[in-house]
């Protein structure tokens, strides 16, 4: 069914005269008559009838007018939304690992909004493990995610944007607590709180222990940095974690790693094969350009 004909039908229903309706539509009267005839042929009923000098709706025309107006209203709304999106309006759906929700992501978005000086771009915020976020990205739940390096990078655009030093944390009173610096080998004889499968940090720490050819004693596993820190503070074991300001507020001792030196890298990840709406592309470009401006090539460096 021709959408133009539906618009013509609504206009004629309003004006009740072919001459006025054709003038409003910027078409000739024969073109309007042809369109209405084609519409009636397709529907199989008469939509208009003559009453004096006016052209009025039949009862079928009155019924069809309700659907026609709803169709045009919905279509026009969709057109307006698409036009706004084309001008950069819309929602940027961000996913990120929880540690980046304290400072990095809020600060980045705040800087972007101040630079843009435009309230038409909105953001939604979602947290999860790296594994969950990557799956959500592939399922089109997020536009951009910030996380550890994905295990499978096929089809993904992966840009490093931040890093944290890895440290060892122990409960107060622990045999290692009097030290300021330790080797990773010094942790081997103590039970550890370890990152669970699916956490990007597990692969990082596994690789760290593989460098010294050893395997840690895993007492408990969980996915979140903050939970691990809390368990260590309550004497469940020690842990290797990224440094975060939260650690300073807990009853844990923070020990630097002498060797091997290690850090946790964070990445901005998006689906390289997916279309980026203008609002998403602009934010992605902003983060990329901001990253390039840093001397050490990282927006965030603790």
From TrEMBL:
GO cellular component, one term: protein-DNA complex
Top-rank taxon: Bacteria
Domain HTH lysR-type: 1-58
Pfam families: HTH_1 (PF00126), LysR_substrate (PF03466)
Keywords: DNA-binding, Transcription, Transcription regulation
Entry keyword Nucleotide-binding: no
Gene3D superfamilies named among the record's database cross-references: 3.40.190.290, Winged helix-like DNA-binding domain superfamily/Winged helix DNA-binding domain
InterPro entries referenced in this protein's UniProt entry, alphabetically: LysR_HTH_N, LysR_subst-bd, WH-like_DNA-bd_sf, WH_DNA-bd_sf
Regions that span the bilayer: none
GO molecular-function terms, A-Z: DNA binding; DNA-binding transcription factor activity
Family listed: Belongs to the LysR transcriptional regulatory family.
Protein name: LysR family transcriptional regulator
């Amino acid at each position: 069914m021709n959408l133009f004909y539906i618009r013509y039908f609504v206009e004629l229903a309003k004006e009740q005269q072919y001459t006025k309706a054709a003038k409003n539509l910027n078409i000739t009267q024969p073109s309007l008559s042809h369109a209405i005839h084609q519409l009636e042929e397709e529907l199989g009923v008469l939509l208009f009838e003559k009453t004096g000098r006016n052209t009025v709706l039949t009862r079928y025309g009155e019924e069809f007018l309700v659907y026609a107006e709803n169709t045009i209203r919905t279509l026009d709304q969709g057109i307006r939304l698409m036009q706004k999106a084309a001008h950069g309006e819309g929602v940027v759906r961000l996913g990120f690992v929880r540690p980046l929700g304290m400072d990095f992501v809020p600060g980045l978005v705040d800087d972007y909004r101040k630079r843009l000086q435009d309230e038409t771009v909105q953001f939604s915020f979602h947290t999860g493990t790296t594994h969950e976020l990557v799956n959500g990205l592939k399922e089109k739940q997020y536009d951009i995610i910030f996380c550890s390096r994905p295990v499978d990078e096929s089809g993904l655009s992966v840009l490093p944007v931040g890093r944290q030093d890895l440290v060892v944390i122990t409960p107060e009173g622990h045999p290692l607590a009097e030290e300021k610096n330790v080797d990773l080998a010094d942790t081997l004889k103590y039970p550890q709180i370890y990152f669970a499968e699916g956490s990007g940090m597990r692969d990082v720490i596994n690789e760290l222990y593989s460098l010294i050819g050893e395997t840690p004693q895993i007492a408990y596993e969980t996915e979140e940095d903050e939970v691990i820190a809390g368990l260590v503070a309550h004497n469940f074991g020690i842990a290797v974690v990224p440094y975060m300001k939260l650690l300073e507020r807990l009853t844990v001792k923070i020990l630097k790693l002498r060797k091997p030196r290690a850090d946790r890298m964070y990445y901005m990840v998006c689906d390289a094969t997916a279309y980026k709406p203008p609002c998403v592309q602009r934010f992605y470009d902003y983060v990329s350009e901001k990253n390039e401006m840093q001397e050490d090539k990282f927006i965030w460096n603790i």
